[in-house]
Amino acid sequence: MDFTVFALSSSTFLSSPLRPKTHLNLNLNLNKRAAQLPFRVRVSFPQCDPSLPPAVQTFWQWLRDEGVVSSKTIVKPALVPEGMGLVAHRDIARNEVVLEVPKRLWINPDAVSASDIGNVCSGLKPWVSVALFLLREKSRDDSNWRLYLDILPQTTNSTVFWSEEELDELQGTQLLSTTMGVKEYVQSEFQKVEEEIILPNKQLFPSPITLDDFFWAFGILRSRAFSRLRGQSLVLIPLADFINHSSRVTTEDHAWEIKGAAGLFSWDYLFSIRSPLSVKAGEQVFIQYDINKSNAELALDYGFIESKADRNAFTLTLQISESDPFYEDKLDIAESNGMGETAFFDIFLDCSLPAQMIPYLRLVAIGGTDAFLLESIFRNSIWGFLDLPVSRANEELICRVIRDACKSALSAYPTTIEEDEKLKESELNPRLEIAVGIRAGEKKVLQHIDGIFKERELELDTLEYYQERRLKDLGLSGELGDIIFWEPK
């Protein structure tokens, strides 16, 4: 989710900002007519479906009371295949404003700072402070966000909420290790904040907060918080988080933070969302959550995956070994080119390899007679050399290492791609569907990587290596690659 515009905009609550003189003239005209004719105004609000849960209907009424929902509101909540969503009250044009929510209703680090727990939370990570704020507000009957908190889900299909049995279906996947790492991180943060903030300040946190509670808050923020707004690291925005994701939306340019009317007589920053697609009345409004995330990231953050092939990814981790006799030289070269001792490369199905991956691989593999390239005389130019094959031995080594790594990773999965594809034909529960999709996707990417380096192996005899290029540059090699010997007369 991103923003591209900071500008004054007409609000959904007032059709345009009224200048004082215009406002005065309007009142005078109304007063004249009031003496002659009865004056009535009929305001029609989009009605909430009476079949929706009472908590959602009460939440909708709260939004009307707060001025978020007005006669100009063009969406309303509805039950959709994803759970809850927003559907069009009338036809919506592409890029038309769908809703605007004033900053006073946002839940973000600013809201924490302005609250009773602001002082004790000032040194915490933003997400931790907002998580504590959420939990404290959830325990208070008089919270300003009570009606919003009441409609938040108790869990999602994010893998951090899966049982051990469900996680077993992710055996062999990178998503499993990532999920376990995230769970350990959240548990560590909870233990620290419990010891340093919650227990020493029982007057501020009278209701007990458990690890499960903390995971709930983490899951809510991970799945519903917007980010990348101006000055916002994360922010929950009531109603805006009803909008679901669709792969049909191919842009993230739908969210703006603007300054505008937040009521009849007030101005505020507004979170504004425009529909990236044209929508017919009764259809659901969609946005794109994050166009660059892999299926594993979508499963971890939101609890769903896409069927698009290029959402499947596998991360290769490459490292310069400390036992390498040229460790210091290689590390210096890597750091001089914006990399480090360890490098992570996300490889997506049917996509080309990341640009820096092959040069880094060649650097890590340099040794033997190629080691002269690591000398200081080449320090400023070696990265350019690494864009092209160094030597047959070097190229052969990187092919063998990567292909062996792919085969090893593939052997760790308890099922084959064919077995996973067969399972997809069955009616699976949402979490098993995610697990099977992730397993199959990762294996396809590993086969894709193996195929790239298998083809490279077959081309080894046809490639031009550094020594040959150098001889050509010096005019010591013929067109067919044969070395030209110069004999003095």
TrEMBL record:
Task: State where the protein is found.
Answer: Plastid, Chloroplast
Q: Which UniProt keywords apply?
A: Chloroplast, Methyltransferase, Plastid, S-adenosyl-L-methionine, Transferase, Transit peptide
Q: What is its EC number?
A: 2.1.1.259
Q: Which GO terms describe its cellular component?
A: chloroplast
Binding-site positions, S-adenosyl-L-methionine: R224, N244, H245
Q: Where does substrate bind?
A: R224, R228, D241, W256, Y289, Y302
Superkingdom of origin: Eukaryota
What the record says about family reads: Belongs to the class V-like SAM-binding methyltransferase superfamily. Plant protein-lysine LSMT methyltransferase family.
Which PANTHER family does the UniProt entry name for this protein?
A: [FRUCTOSE-BISPHOSPHATE ALDOLASE]-LYSINE N-METHYLTRANSFERASE, CHLOROPLASTIC (PTHR13271:SF113), UNCHARACTERIZED PUTATIVE METHYLTRANSFERASE (PTHR13271)
Protein's recorded name? [fructose-bisphosphate aldolase]-lysine N-methyltransferase
Give the organism, scientific name: Rubus argutus (Southern blackberry)
| Phylogenetic classification of the source organism | Eukaryota, Viridiplantae, Streptophyta, Embryophyta, Tracheophyta
